[in-house]
């Protein structure tokens, strides 16, 4: 499932990223969050063009959440993709995933609503899930505000991939919004320290210690870890969830968990397209200098366009 070696572009990008180690404590986490703002603004100084962007306020259980709406070129209405950023449930923002969302908008022809959610450890599970599901419900009910067709999909990477899968599961079990597709990009689902991908690739972008600290910050206890709305690998039946696209990377410690979830979806009768990028690393679809990132976004965008095409 992994190539003989990491793609050179991805290897250089991962090496640059590793210069700023991931924090394993609240004080260091706060410092990194402060640093992320100016670094992200520098990274996003020449963004890919889209039709328009708008700031949106989304009502969630704890108040209002900020979101950014990306509109494609052309005349509305557009299908809506609700996007959840990655960051181990403790980091990340609309800004950190601006480049990915812009390209996803261009490739899918859909409006992409990138939403913030409460972060751990200040707000452990189920805060992020509550915000994510509320955002999907609001998007489904706000067709006019979003210039939408009424068709909705969910997408996310890493921790955001977990949230996209969870919102698809909740919508199915609660008779919630109709979700046409879920796009799960190297999702943080079904992770086990004994998996081959964790043993062999821990330390490439994500170390075993990183994974465990993120997990402890978000789940807090074993009961939460086994809740299907915290990790949908524990769901008893996925047969009612939206058709899925699952993307994994060969040198990603999270690869085997994502693969296992794709297999579970297929076993439960859910139409699923699974694609592994053997020479890629975790987070590669946000790495602007990696050519395969654009290829992967185009492939996911095509799936969303097909699913949401009237």
From TrEMBL:
* Superkingdom of origin organism: Archaea
Keywords attached to this entry: Hydrolase
Give a Pfam family name: Abhydrolase_3
InterPro entries xref list: AB_hydrolase_3 (IPR013094), AB_hydrolase_fold (IPR029058), GDXG_lipolytic_enzyme (IPR050300), Lipase_GDXG_HIS_AS (IPR002168), Lipase_GDXG_put_SER_AS (IPR033140)
Residue ranges annotated for the Alpha/beta hydrolase fold-3 domain, each copy included: 81-285
A single GO molecular function, which one?
Answer: hydrolase activity
Family assignment from sequence similarity = Belongs to the 'GDXG' lipolytic enzyme family.
Q: Which PANTHER family match?
A: AB HYDROLASE SUPERFAMILY PROTEIN C4A8.06C, ALPHA_BETA HYDROLASE FOLD-3 DOMAIN-CONTAINING PROTEIN-RELATED
What is this protein identified as? Triacylglycerol lipase
Q: Which organism is it from?
A: Halorubrum distributum JCM 9100
């Amino acid at each position: 499932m992994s190539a003989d070696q990491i793609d050179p572009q991805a290897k250089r990008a991962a090496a640059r990223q590793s210069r700023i180690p991931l924090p394993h404590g609240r004080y260091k986490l706060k410092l990194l969050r402060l640093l992320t703002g100016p670094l992200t603004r520098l990274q996003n100084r020449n963004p890919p063009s889209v039709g328009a962007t708008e700031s949106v306020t989304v009502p969630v259980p704890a108040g209002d959440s900020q979101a950014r709406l990306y509109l494609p070129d052309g005349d509305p209405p557009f299908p809506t993709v609700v996007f959840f950023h990655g960051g181990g449930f403790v980091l990340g923002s609309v800004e950190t995933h601006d480049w990915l969302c812009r390209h996803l908008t261009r490739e899918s022809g859909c409006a992409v609503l990138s939403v913030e959610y409460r972060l751990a450890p200040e707000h452990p599970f189920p805060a992020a899930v509550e915000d994510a599901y509320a955002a999907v419900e609001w998007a489904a009910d706000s067709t006019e505000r979003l210039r939408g067709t009424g068709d909705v999909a969910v997408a996310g990477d890493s921790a955001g991939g977990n949230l996209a899968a969870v919102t698809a599961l909740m919508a199915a079990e609660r008779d919630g919004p109709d979700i046409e597709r879920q796009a799960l990009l190297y999702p943080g689902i079904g992770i086990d320290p004994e998996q081959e991908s964790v043993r062999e690739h821990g330390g490439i972008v994500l170390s075993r210690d990183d994974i465990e600290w993120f997990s402890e910050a978000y789940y807090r206890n074993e009961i939460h870890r086994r809740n299907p709305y915290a990790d949908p690998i524990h769901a008893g039946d996925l047969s009612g969830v939206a058709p899925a696209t699952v993307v994994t990377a060969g040198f990603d410690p999270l690869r085997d968990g994502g693969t296992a979830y794709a297999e579970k979806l297929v076993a439960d009768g859910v139409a699923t397209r699974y694609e592994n990028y053997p020479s890629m690393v975790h987070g590669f679809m946000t790495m602007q200098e990696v050519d395969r990132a654009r290829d992967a976004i185009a492939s996911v965008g095509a799936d969303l366009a097909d699913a949401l095409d009237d």
